Amino acid sequence: MPSDPLQTGDFRRCAEFHGHVCPGLSIGYRAAQADLEKLHSLRSQDEELVAEVETDACGVDAVQVLTGCTFGKGNLVFRDRGKQAFTLFSRSTGQGVRASLRAGAFAPDSRQGELFDKMHANTATAEEERELWELQRDKSRKVLEKPVEELFSIQWVTRSMPDKAEIEGSETCDGCGEPTMASRMRRIGEAKYCLDCAGYRE
Question: What is the rounded average pLDDT of the residues 36-49?
Answer without folding.
Answer: 93
